[in-house]
Write a structure and sequence with these properties.
alpha+beta, Uridine Diphospho-n-acetylenolpyruvylglucosamine Reductase, domain 3, Uridine Diphospho-n-acetylenolpyruvylglucosamine Reductase, domain 1
Length: about 325
């Protein structure tokens, strides 16, 4: 029996007393819980339906020293074909409420799209820019969700950090704290959560009064802009941008200039619409995606001398190159 097996047994034994709302599930394929629709099984999958249960599940996993991972909507990740050895804590904690006229508190499993309509119905602006981007609130602060400012100028990038007032966190040390933006260390596709084992439990947004008609216009324009440039997830599942931004050049532009739009390995293909997006044509494996990523990296390095660094997170266990 491995150390992971022993830790899993300890987690299962303690869960009935420590995690009260949902049963544990075993051997659950993770593909349906990701936007890529790719990924093998988790040893244990637990649905955390509140911030309290999320904190309890993470704390228990840390206590018994079992590998763990918090899963939101499953965007921006690639789960290995062998799945995840350990506990996947699926964050479906979605309670939210207004604290006053402009502050909106929400648990970190809340889907951003749902919050947008809640805010617009109250004539509150600040979240409408991110319509069409699949994310939970936890994922939004983890990645510092961003989009271009409204049409027609679109002169700058707007970040979710601009409307974050504070974040309730389970710290790496196991403490429950409420942290402001300085602690969160927001950057481009970056935050404190990339560099610690802190877990976002809930977020408070400070919004501003606005015109619902103008907000609906922004949403429609942004959906149109994305729809013309990004493959639709319902038709071509993907994880969003594969490679990190290269300032002044653009990772997708380099891949495109290598003539790789439409290039395919197995069920994975570099999108015809956007060269920095890999789509699942049906039945794609994580191995297919990794091979396609490596091919694009080699092509760009050979032609332009640029290194493409993946933006997506690789979760779980992957087949070794050349293995069956």
């Amino acid at each position: 029996m491995t150390a992971t097996d022993r830790a899993l047994d300890a987690f299962r034994a303690l869960a009935p007393r420590r995690l009260t709302t949902q049963p544990l599930r075993t051997g659950v394929p993770l593909a349906p819980y990701t936007t890529f629709r790719i990924g093998g099984p988790a040893d244990v999958l637990y649905d955390a339906t509140s911030a309290e249960e999320l904190a309890n599940a993470v704390s228990l996993a840390r206590e018994v020293e079992v590998p763990w991972f918090v899963l939101g909507l499953g965007a921006n990740i690639l789960v290995g074909d062998r799945g995840f050895r350990g506990v996947v804590i699926r964050n479906v904690a979605r309670a939210h409420r207004f604290l006053d006229d402009t502050r909106l508190w929400c648990e970190s499993g809340t889907v951003v799209k749902d919050l947008i309509f809640t805010a617009v119905d109250r004539s509150l602006s600040g979240l409408e820019h991110y319509i069409g981007i699949p994310s939970t609130v936890g994922g939004a602060v983890w990645q510092n969700l961003h989009f271009l400012s409204p049409a027609p100028e679109r002169e700058r990038t707007m970040f979710i950090a601009e409307v974050v007032e504070s974040c309730d966190i389970l710290s790496t040390a196991g403490e429950r704290i409420t942290a402001g933006r300085d602690y969160l260390r927001f950057g481009y596709d970056d935050s404190v959560f990339h560099h610690t084992q802190d877990v976002a439990l809930a977020v408070t947004f400070r919004l501003t009064p606005g015109d619902p008609g103008a907000m609906h216009r922004v949403m429609q324009e942004n959906l149109g802009w994305r729809g013309a440039r990004h493959p639709w997830l319902d038709i071509h599942p993907s994880a969003g941008s594969i490679f990190k931004k290269i300032e002044g050049v653009g990772a997708g532009r380099l891949v495109d200039q290598c003539g790789l739009k439409g290039h395919r390995i197995g069920g994975a293909q570099i999108s015809h619409l956007h060269a920095n997006i890999v789509v699942n044509l049906g039945g794609a494996t994580a191995a297919d995606v990794r091979a396609l990523i490596a091919h694009a990296q080699r092509a760009v390095a050979e032609r332009f001398g640029q290194h493409l660094e993946p933006e997506i997170a690789f979760v779980g266990e992957f087949e070794e190159p050349g293995s069956a």
